[in-house]
Amino acid sequence: MSVAEMCMLRWICGHTRKDRIRNDDIRDMVGVAPIEEKLIQHRLRWFGHIQRRPPEAPVRIGILNHFENTRSGRGRPRLTWEEAVKRDLKEWNVSKELAIDRSAWKLAIHVPEP
């Protein structure tokens, strides 16, 4: 994903890989944050929204996407949204309980633009 992002940013700037300009310099010229960080930020923002919902809400209970009696396919199981959120919380050193306070949560998960 980051390769495609850098390809588009280089195209916006009018440079090619042959120009041998560093990715950080290209990103500073355009003034955007890395797409992976922005995706994590949006995933954690949605997680905060879910945490602030009442406990009986369908999205909080997991009724909306919980399937029973389905066979799992061969190979490694797919990464679930919950597992991705747990990984992001651990990687960014943010506690799950902080999501209750909306203003503190927004500050904790904010990705600044360069």
From TrEMBL:
Q: Which domain of life is it from?
A: Eukaryota
Q: What is this protein identified as?
A: Transcriptase
Species whose genome carries this gene: Rhynchospora pubera
